[in-house]
Amino acid sequence: MSDSAPGYALSDEHNDFRAMVADFAAAEIAPYAEQWDREHTFPLDAVKKMGAIGLFGLHAPEEYGGAGDFTSLCVAIEEIGRVDQSLGITLEAGVGLGINPIASFGTPAQKEEWLPNLIAGRALAGFGLTEPEAGSDAGATRTRADLVDGEWVVNGAKQFITNSGTDITSVVTVTARTGVREDGKPEISSLLLPTDSEGLTVEPPYRKLGWHASDTHPLTFTHVRVPEANLLGERGKGFAQFLAILDDGRVAIAALALGCIRACRDLAAAYALERTTFGVPIGRKQGVAFQIADLDVMAHTADLLVYSAAALRDRGGSPAEFRRAAAIAKLYCTEAAVTATRTATQVFGGYGFMEEYPVARFYRDAKVLEIGEGTSEVQRMVIARGLGLPVE
C-alpha cells in the first residue's frame, strides 16, 4: 500500500528516520509479533535492540545520550505501532512516563543516576499514578509517603503500571500523599522508588484483552524506605508534574493509534486485492472499496493531527494551545483506531475473527487507546474548557 497520499509535510531527515525505523520493525518485530502476542511474552531482546538504535533516547537530553525531537519520537512510535502495538506502547511509556518525568523534574544527581541507562534502553522505568480508587482524581490518592529521619516511608498500591515488572525495570516514579495543604486538600508529591527496594512488590501481571506483549502489573508498597533526596521535583507538585507531561503522552498515544489505523488500511487493501468472490477481487465491490477509502481518510486525518501537534511541541507553542491540540489528536486518533480495526475485521470477514490474522490482534489492542493517558471523556472535557466552557 502506498503512502503517497498527502499528509503533514515532514522534513527529509524525519522521512529518512521513518524509513530506518520501518526497516527495523520489519526485520526485528514483524516476524515474531504474533508469537509474542499468543504466548504473552515480553520481548526483552527486541526492546534492547530498540534501545541500541536510539529509540528510547528520542526527545531526551543530549548530555545523557539522547537525540532527536518530539516529532522523531512520534514517527518511531507510529512505525513500531504499525507492526506491533505492544512494543509501540512499550516505547511510548518508556520515554513519556519513564524518562520524561526524570528529565523534566529531576535534580542533576537524579538525572545522572537514572537517565543514561534508560536512554540507552538498558533499563526501563514506570510511572505509578493510578490506584484502585484514584487516577485523574488526585484527591483520592491513598498511597502515603511519610518523612521519617531523613527517609520517605511509602505505603500503598498502584495499578495498571506499564514497564513495571520487566527484568530491566530499574525505577518507578510514584505519586503519594506527603502531607496536607493549607486549603485542607492532600499534598501530592512524586518519589523515585528503585524496584529493588525492600517492601516494593511487583504483583502478578494482568490478564489483558490486548497488548499481550506489553508488561503491565499492579504494585504494592509496604514500608518502602528511600532517601529524602528521592523526591522528584518540588514537594507538593507531584500531580501538577504529571499533568505537565501528560500532553506529550497524549500526542504519543495518538501516534500509536495512527500506526494502528495505517496497518488496518494496508492489511484491508491488500486483502481486498487478493480475496475473490464470484470470480473477481472483493476490492471491486463498492461496499468493500468504500470501507477501505474511509480507512484512508482516517489515516490522512490522523496524520495531520499527530504531526501538527508534534510540530507545535517542537517549536515551543503556548501550553494552552498545545494542550488543546494534544487532546484533539488523542480523541480523534484513538476513536478512529477503534473504528478502523472494526472496519478491517469486517473486510476480512470470517478470517478477521481468526487469531492467525493481524487484524484480530489490532482489534483487541485498539480499545485501550481510548482509555490510557486520559479517556475520551477527559479529552472532550479538555477541549471544551479550551473553548471557555465551564465543564466539570
From TrEMBL:
The keyword Flavoprotein is assigned to this record: yes
UniProt name for this protein: Butyryl-CoA dehydrogenase
Domain Acyl-CoA oxidase/dehydrogenase middle: 127-224
Family: Belongs to the acyl-CoA dehydrogenase family.
Keywords: FAD, Flavoprotein, Oxidoreductase
InterPro entries per record: Acyl-CoA_DH_CS, Acyl-CoA_Oxase/DH_mid-dom, Acyl-CoA_Oxase/DH_mid-dom_sf, AcylCo_DH-like_C, AcylCo_DH/oxidase_C, AcylCoA_DH/ox_N, AcylCoA_DH/ox_N_sf, AcylCoA_DH/oxidase_NM_dom_sf
Domain Acyl-CoA dehydrogenase/oxidase N-terminal: 11-121
Cofactor(s) listed: FAD
Acyl-CoA dehydrogenase/oxidase C-terminal domain boundaries: 236-387
Organism: Microlunatus panaciterrae
EC number in record: 1.3.8.1
PROSITE patterns listed in its UniProt record: ACYL_COA_DH_1, ACYL_COA_DH_2
Coiled-coil annotated spans: none
MF (Gene Ontology): short-chain fatty acyl-CoA dehydrogenase activity
